[in-house]
Amino acid sequence: MSTLRVDEVSVRFGALVALDAVSFTVEPGTVHAVIGPNGAGKSTCLNVLSGVYRPDAGRVYLDDRELTRLRPHHIARLGIARTFQNIEVSGAETVEDNLMLGRHHLMRPRLAATAFGLPSVAREERRHRTRVREIADFLGLSAALDRPAALLPYGLRKRLELARALAMEPRLLLLDEPVAGMDGAETAEMADVILRVRTELGVTVVLVEHDMGMVTRIADRVTVLDFGRRIFDGSPAAMAADPAVVEAYLGGAPSSTKEPA
Amino acid sequence: MSDRLNRLMPKAGWVAAVIVLLALPLYVDGFWLSAGLVAMAAAVGAVGLTLLVGAAGQLSFAHAFFLAVGAYGYACFSGEPGAATLGLGLPPALGAALAIAVTGALGLAFSPVASRLRGIYLGVASLSLVFVGQHLLHNLTGVTGGFNGRDTPMFTLAGFDVTGSEPPVTVAGVPFGATERLWYLGLVALAGAGVIARNLLRGRTGRALRMVRDSEVAAAVLGVDVRRSKATAFVVSSMFAGAAGVLSALALDRVVPDYFGLLLSVEFLAMIVIGGLGSVGGAVTGAAFVTLLPIVLARYSGVLPLVADAGSGGVDAAVLARFCYGAAVVLVILIQPDGLAGLGRRLRARLGPAVPSLQEST
Amino acid sequence: MSNLVELVINGLSLGSIYALIALGFVVIFKATEVVNFAHGSMLMLGAYVIAATHGRIGFPAAVAAGLATAATVGLLIDRLLVSRLRRRSHTALAIVTIGVDIVLGAELARRVGTEVLNMGDPWLDHTWRVAGFTFPVSRLAAIAVALVLIVAFAALVRYTDWGVAMRAAAEDAEAASLMGIRLGRVSMVAWVVAGVLAAVAGLFLATFPSPGLSATASTTALRAFPAVVVGGMDSLSGAVVGGLVIGLAETLAAGYSEQLLFLGRGLGDVAPYAVMIAVLLWRPTGLFGTRELSRV
């Protein structure tokens, strides 16, 4: 089990400070939510954790391993998977092939053997397809395996992206607004799936979310950001009573700055 | 029953196509075989380019350069030693293999540029290879023969001439000369190129490339080394171009710099777009269309209205062909983005059994 | 020494012509995200119309006709093709312009054939001697005209509604569209302006010391691509700087070709591309291009 530690991370886009010395620790086996109003820096935070942005200051550690200097594919190979707010799946590919992409880093890179179609490559491919079908089963996607991803309804595409992340066999799962655009029933289902991921697969979950109801229901711990600064870190119960959080969510004027995607 | 028929149909189609291609030298005269050879050489190159442009989404004009490297590389490795231009006198098969390897190595040398650029920047940057290549082909006269080029060395395999007529072979009353023999070499090369490309596209490599094309960031967080993937696509595609270069050199008998200009790169792009980006079969079809069209038009210019004689200043076969494939490129992007391959798929889907609609899973 | 000064002036002149081509290219890219591979053909078309009509209607009218034709073709590409392909990938858009270039280039190459067409310009092969240096008048005219056009263009971008709209669209087309900016008009004007700039460049590429308009002009026009890449594909000032850098590189390489003979003949033609590769290795988005936020 591994701990993710975010230590004084700052990110600037020109004059805009997207993250201002933000720190928090994600304990293994928990669901950790990062929330905040629009433009608070949530997505930027996820981009730093997955290596897409390099912070201007501060560090991120997975146990003792520093992640800050690593390129994203390297971080992915350490067992950190993520999803995107605006679903990034290959629409033309089937659900199964999308899931196979999650196995990329678990398969051996054998260009020549693949080119000449050696039987060992086919065997490896079959092994991973078996595992991918299990994961599809776990998330209720089995019936859709042969369909192009673009033809799935929105809710299922969201779920496909989660399944693809799980196909990477991650230790840590970063979810960027997993229930954005979903109705109440879909949200409840997704919340249930996330909890099962944590309990049945033992994966630590970091969740960037808008939906307060969902966060208070499933998160073990919450970090609240506002204008790039951390204004709260603690249990969901304590958050509801925290004056700074209440101020940011209810009292403060809605921020108009566009969040860098 | 009809279900089984539907599954057998494509296989039967393949078998028929292979039989026709194998038997063609018995029935078709040398002119069309030569034209077919040029098309096959182009098809090998187009299959490689569709890996790079179609699958990985990296636009490249460098293909003509890599074809030149393959063609001249073969001429150097297997050329006669002691002639005016460099020749190492290696066995032709070895020379061809080395030429392809050198093409790959040059692709690798350019990959620090290629792998760091987003698709469209690579498109512009790759222009440089065509012009640097032209400069080298014209100036390295000791290797390339300069403006006038150099002859392609004979291709023999264990004492059997592939581009000659020793020992003599006659099949069903048809004497098999250089063109007929080369035809089969072309078929083998094309089949090999097609199978390799399909294997790559269907497996781990192809999935990663397509994801890089759709979203570099998403590919990276899935553990795909984006730069490495792009570099791989670039190197593999240049090796296909190298093989196409060797075949072109054999089909044309002589290699000259002007053949490997920007126009050739543009033609290759037209081939893969018309065929349908990312599709192996489409690349082959597109290659046949773009290379055979001017030949067919020129052959029948006497009968066809509107086609002027070459050099008359009117719309001759070459110009008309360029009008056609240029317009085809525009039309494909506008109305049928997956090209002829997509058209084929759609037709098959219409003829085949209706796909049962899936139940929405929850 | 005198040689160097003349070469630099000639290089800046050629560079200012490349800058005009590059500016048009960049403004199209900024406004519509299209990498216009038909740019060379648009230039060639403008120059061809001037060459073909000046005998009948006189040079000034011929120039007007040339500019108008190139602008019209730009407009047609925008209306008939680009505007129908919004939200498609950069590659698809670029490929459409390659298709246009194939057709237009084939027709122009056929019409020009192996001839060298006179542009009918008033500068002929006149030269201007000053302090022991000799400069072709047409080159000086190119610098002057380019300077005026670049300043006018900068004013257009900075002060007009179109300029503001174009820059907003380049930042974020979706947001600009939500704020009421008509992307269609932004894109139309960009293509028209690019056509005009390309035709002017075409005129000067075909005047002295070039013997006239020949089929190779489109190859020369391609050297504006290195200019664009060196400057950075989305930077207007980069286009000007890149144009000058490439013009200088080409002219100096050609001017000192005797000393550089070990690099082969025709070095001037290939120097722009060598410079481009060198810059790209150093900075993948050019000297002034926007750097990528994400690293992958």
From TrEMBL, chain A:
GO terms for cellular component: plasma membrane. InterPro entries: AAA+_ATPase, ABC_AA/LPS_Transport, ABC_transporter-like_ATP-bd, BCA_ABC_TP_C, P-loop_NTPase. PANTHER family: ABC TRANSPORTER ATP-BINDING PROTEIN (PTHR45772:SF1), CONSERVED COMPONENT OF ABC TRANSPORTER FOR NATURAL AMINO ACIDS-RELATED (PTHR45772). Residues 4-252 form the ABC transporter domain. GO terms for molecular function: ATP binding; ATP hydrolysis activity. Pfam families: ABC_tran, BCA_ABC_TP_C. Signal peptide: none annotated. It comes from Planosporangium flavigriseum. Keywords: ATP-binding, Nucleotide-binding, Transport. The lineage of its organism: Bacteria, Bacillati, Actinomycetota, Actinomycetes, Micromonosporales. SMART domains: AAA (SM00382). This is ABC transporter ATP-binding protein.
UniProtKB/TrEMBL annotation, chain B:
Keywords: Cell membrane, Membrane, Transmembrane, Transmembrane helix. It is a multi-pass membrane protein. It is found in: Cell membrane. InterPro entries: ABC_transp_permease (IPR001851), LivM-like (IPR043428). The chain crosses the membrane at residues 12-28, 34-54, 61-80, 92-113, 120-137, 182-201, 231-253, 259-280, 287-308, 320-341. Its main location: membrane. GO terms for cellular component: plasma membrane. GO terms for molecular function: branched-chain amino acid transmembrane transporter activity. This is Branched-chain amino acid ABC transporter permease. It comes from Planosporangium flavigriseum.
From TrEMBL, chain C:
One of its GO terms (molecular function) is transmembrane transporter activity. Its main location: membrane. The chain crosses the membrane at residues 12-29, 57-77, 89-110, 130-157, 188-208, 228-248, 260-282. Keywords: Amino-acid transport, Cell membrane, Membrane, Transmembrane, Transmembrane helix, Transport. One of its GO terms (cellular component) is plasma membrane. GO terms for biological process: amino acid transport. The keyword Membrane applies. InterPro entries: ABC_transp_permease, BCAA_transport_permease. It is a multi-pass membrane protein. Pfam families: BPD_transp_2 (PF02653). It is found in: Cell membrane. Belongs to the binding-protein-dependent transport system permease family. LivHM subfamily. This is Branched-chain amino acid ABC transporter permease. It comes from Planosporangium flavigriseum.
